[in-house]
Amino acid sequence: MENIRQASEGDVSRIAEILIFSKRVNYRAIFENDLVSFGEMQVCPLAQSLLQDPAVLHRYWVYDDGIVKGLVCIEGDEVRELYVEPFFTGCGIGARLLRFAAEKKGCRRLWVLEKNLRAIRFYRRNGFEPTGAHRIQPGTTETVILLERSAAPLPR
């Protein structure tokens, strides 16, 4: 898939920026915890942790059209994280990353916060359906639900 490549050390600061800012934008209303959103979640420590563990960095793939605009983290057959820089949401980058994960890397499942209705709609539009499985997200009181890829081809 064009513009999608495995992340490298040179991408670490951008990956950390996208992760921190996207999580703040998407989860602040759900978790309502500014001490975590603006205290614990910081770009530099996250970037340093990615540099210190190449095995974790190796799981990330980035959408790069001259600027790294989004990322997907893949572990086995599971999409662990998929985020697009908030300035570039709605441009089809997330759908391309998800299609890449499913078609090129064999990902068929992912967990999503039950309250993250926007993300659930996105995943459903892109061929992933709720299975009925759920659990508490570790370290929180929030529920996550399991979505799996349907057998039908993913939308283009």
How would you sum up this structure, described in words?
Helix content is 40%, strand content 28%. By secondary structure, it is α+β, with helices and mostly antiparallel strands. The protein contains 6 helices and 7 strands, in the order E-H-H-H-H-E-E-E-H-E-H-E-E. It has a 7-stranded mixed beta sheet with strand order 1-2-3-4-5-7-6, with helices on both faces. The chain has a domain at 4-107: Aminopeptidase (3-Layer(aba) Sandwich). Strand 4 (78-84), helix 5 (93-105) and strand 5 (109-113) form a beta-alpha-beta unit.
Short description:
By secondary structure, this protein is α+β, with helices and mostly antiparallel strands.
Q: Taking Cα atoms only, what radius of gyration do you get, to the nearest Å?
A: 15 Å
Helical content, roughly?
40-55%
- Euclidean distance between termini CA atoms: 12 Å
Shape assignment:
globular
What structural class do helix, strand and pairing data support? alpha+beta
Top CATH class of the domain at 4-107? Alpha Beta
Task: Sketch the topology as an H/E string, one letter per element.
Answer: EHHHHEEEHEHEE
Strand content: 25-35%
Which topology of the domain at 4-107 does CATH recognise? Aminopeptidase
**CATH H level, superfamily name of the domain at 4-107:** Gcn5-related N-acetyltransferase (GNAT)
Q: Main beta sheet: strand number and arrangement?
A: 7 strands, mixed
Please tell me the CATH architecture of the domain at 4-107 by its name.
3-Layer(aba) Sandwich
Number of strands: 7
Mean pLDDT reading: 90
**Tally the helices: what do you get?**
6
